[in-house]
């Protein structure tokens, strides 16, 4: 493809994307394809001769689109939002157009320095303690990671290195291996799966402490677990506190956890992947009280802040720990200005991979084109829409609303979990809206999240009408069938393995079998 | 930004990118900014009100471009290429426009299935053993990782898990911790820095074995090291062989290493990040002889195969090992078709992060718009251009050419390293072309790589004219100054820490100080 074809093709694709967004309500949010659908449509071998771009673009519509789950549809209410906006798309086009790999300052000075600067911008927007900013006197700073998963993991490794050196200094007779074998990490059972995975990746047992009734990890919960482990000869090393858990958007008690971690030289990482975005609004910042105790803090711009995946903002109070854990310098990577001056960081030492995209470009476009007020308005509106949905559900006496917070509503049909499960399966079979479930203290709930930036009140009403309509059908079934349709199902579904687990993404057949049950 | 503004802005940016590529020779390949330049130009706070896109786009030209190292300039000959092409940019625009997050099949079926299919395409293009393909009967398959760094690391973790279970089965009295503390990995001292880093990240000692005179890790080298370690009570677990080392593009002897690994149940990972691309041409496939012994194989499409970063193709013979090492399932991630059927993999278990971009889209565009013949022509041309450069250097009796292979030429001025260092500093001070150095068996060499897809014979001639011209200046200095200008410099530069290391990215002042020396 030469420049002239690119000009034509690129502009066609710009229109295609705009048309896609303008008409996204016309597409079913959930794909109805069956596994393997694409292998019938895409030949088993790559073409020998190059093809025309028009053919490929037509295949995007005909082959790809039927298999897309539309994350940016206003009918998408599953998981948490994925960031998406026109300014981010523009910024990423430029990132690709320039195509530099900013692993060190010299490899593209603008790539490093823009990242430093927008991380300072964003840290100030959230009102983070200034020790986290690159512009502070100290060794703190911000860096863009690919995901909160990576942020949690790199901080675990830094914590491991820091603790190993500290213990070694206290007891030089211990080997590094002996020390590392005793290290232990903590999080709550409500933290994201990526936190547990970080423990697996980093070979450090990650204790999943049972959260309190509100889904929070508290000081006493942590203190008790630590005391047990210390008595067993283990060394507490790393704590991951969540601000905004995945299931119910609960906030761990940073003000209680922080002093415990600080007093015991334990690295405190704050995973605010989703809810951290709300701190652009001063009225929600009380929820991060205690952040001054943290060693690291992460929030995904690619979730609730309109930047396309991947763009996860991580700040650390002392970047030296990251650099010490990861630094493997080679001749071909050396350059004149090499230093760990936070003003000119060599970001390759702050992350897992060597290479890195010019991610700050899309973030810069979003921050400038929206402005702080634009971001605040976005978050405010999404919280408002979720509140509205919560009110609608609350007005229906068949339902119980267990959570309304930060753009998330968790609800269920009153009574046995089976009815909520039945409702959920009908919703999935109908496919008008996309939701996922969670189990909270053995209660099955359906999570409703305002995900798309295109969601309006009319979409919230649409979702509620659909849910209410399906609940009517459940009601009619309640009259003829016992609550426990599937043998062996209990309140613990779907955590326990049961045959009915197969039904979580439903088809008409599934509903039929349930109706027959 | 609404849809209408995006249509206008997006098309302007398409033209901006095309103009940038069309006129890239007008821009100096290396930025001449000083550290911190951008902090003077970008205000310390984000704007409160949203700005106009025209203002931001003007700032891209005025603020960002001066700080860009132009990786796609035909005068860029440093490191290895970074993939960049119009089809890839188009594909990534669509990836962002759709904006789905394909962590599981249901999260976007097309995202998973297109990745399966293009990985099969690409595996066949390279003529990989079919056990690596998703379409084989067995548990093998391909997956896109963000980088070769991540590929090396995830395979290390899978190897660790596999070996731990194996040893545990042999000796149930050993704890996992005891086993893991004995595991050891091997690579050569010529492997990429990311391999050493994988050892750090995964808490497994990575022995950097001294390569032979040709820069290769051979069977005897590995066997000797393993025997030493086994005698010390350690358990060999993981070997990373490189096809195309960073310094000199050497190829480890897979046919010797493979049987040793297989006989000893050691995971053999092949890092063909750069040179693996050349296997699109049958005439180079003898260089991967022995690949059938490997457990995993990685090549970066984002290096030499025209796909924008990030896009690293990893195949494994048995994906179960990855899944076993990483699987942390939660209710909110469950879906009906969940399985580890290689036809419908849940790719989140094959990688570090939970989230993932629709990376296969850009790969699909590149494979279809270039076709296999287009990719072959690209690699052929780049190898030809490097060969041409090698011939030019060889014709000058002042120079010694140490490597000409696969688009890479390593050369030096005959004699003491200081003259090559002096030449390199002059080249960097002049800034007409960008190169990096390497130290090979204590000889300093300058690496010349054909990086940009825009490079033509005229650019190779330009580079050679510049190098020859700067060599003339070194010659004139040879007449007046002793070879060892910098006290303490020896043949080992720049591996040893010396003051002169500060001179690797030069300015006129540096050259002056050298001339005065």
Automatic annotation (TrEMBL), chains A, B:
Alphabetically ordered keywords of this record: Lyase, Pyridoxal phosphate
Positions bearing N6-(pyridoxal phosphate)lysine: 303
A biological process from GO: carboxylic acid metabolic process
Pfam families reported in the protein's UniProt record: Pyridoxal_deC
Cofactor requirement: pyridoxal 5'-phosphate
Gene3D superfamilies from the UniProt entry: Aspartate Aminotransferase, domain 1, dopa decarboxylase, N-terminal domain, Type I PLP-dependent aspartate aminotransferase-like (Major domain)
Keyword Lyase: yes
Similarity comment: Belongs to the group II decarboxylase family.
Protein name: Aromatic-L-amino-acid decarboxylase
Organism whose genome encodes this protein: Macrosiphum euphorbiae
């Amino acid at each position: 493809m030469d420049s002239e074809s690119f000009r034509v093709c690129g502009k066609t694709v710009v229109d295609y994307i705009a048309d896609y967004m303008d008409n996204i309500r016309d597409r079913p949010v959930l794909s109805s394809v069956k596994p393997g659908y694409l292998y019938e449509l895409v030949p088993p071998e790559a073409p020998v001769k190059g093809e025309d771009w028009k053919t490929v673009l037509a295949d995007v519509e005909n082959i790809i689109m039927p298999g897309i789950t539309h994350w940016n549809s206003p009918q998408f209410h599953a998981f948490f939002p994925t960031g998406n906006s026109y300014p981010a798309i523009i910024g990423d086009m430029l990132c690709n157009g320039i195509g530099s790999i900013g692993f060190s300052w010299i490899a593209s000075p603008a790539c490093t320095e823009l990242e430093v600067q927008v991380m300072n911008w964003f840290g100030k927007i959230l009102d983070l303690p200034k020790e986290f900013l690159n512009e502070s006197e100290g060794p703190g700073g911000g860096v863009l990671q690919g995901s909160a998963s990576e942020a949690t993991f790199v901080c675990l490794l830094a914590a491991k290195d820091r603790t190993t050196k500290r213990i070694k200094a206290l007891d030089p007779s211990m080997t590094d291996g002996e020390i590392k074998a005793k290290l232990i990490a903590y999080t709550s059972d409500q933290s994201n799966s990526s936190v547990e995975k970080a423990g697996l990746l980093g070979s450090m047992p990650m204790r999943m402490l049972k959260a309190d009734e509100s889904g929070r990890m508290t000081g006493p919960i942590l203190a008790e677990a630590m005391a047990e482990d210390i008595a067993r000869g283990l060394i507490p090393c790393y704590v991951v506190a969540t601000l905004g858990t995945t299931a119910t958007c609960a906030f761990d008690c940073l003000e209680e956890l922080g002093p415990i971690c600080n007093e015991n030289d334990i690295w405190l990482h704050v995973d605010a992947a989703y809810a951290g975005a709300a701190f652009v609004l001063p009225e929600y910042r009380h929820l991060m009280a205690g952040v001054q105790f943290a060693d690291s803090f992460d929030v995904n711009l690619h979730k609730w802040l309109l930047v396309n995946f991947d763009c996860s903002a991580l700040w650390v109070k002392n970047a030296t720990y990251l650099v010490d854990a990861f630094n493997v310098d080679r001749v071909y990577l050396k350059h004149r200005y090499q230093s760990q001056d936070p003003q000119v960081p060599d970001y390759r030492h702050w992350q897992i991979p060597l290479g890195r995209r010019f991610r700050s470009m899309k973030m810069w476009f979003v921050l400038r084109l929206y402005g702080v007020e634009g971001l605040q308005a976005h978050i405010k509106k999404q919280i408002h829409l979720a509140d509205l949905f919560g009110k609608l559900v609350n007005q229906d006496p068949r339902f119980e609303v267990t959570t309304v917070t930060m753009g998330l509503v968790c609800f269920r049909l009153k009574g046995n979990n089976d009815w909520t499960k039945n409702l959920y399966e009908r919703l999935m079979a109908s496919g008008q809206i996309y939701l996922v479930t969670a189990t909270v203290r053995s209660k099955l709930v359906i999570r409703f999240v305002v995900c798309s930036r295109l969601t309006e009140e009319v979409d919230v009403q649409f979702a509620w009408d659909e849910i209410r309509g399906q609940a009517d059908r459940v009601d009619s079934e309640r009259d003829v069938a016992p609550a426990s349709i599937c043998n062996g199902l209990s309140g613990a579904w779907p955590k326990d393995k049961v045959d009915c687990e197969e039904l979580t993404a439903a088809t008409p057949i599934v509903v039929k079998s349930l109706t027959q049950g």
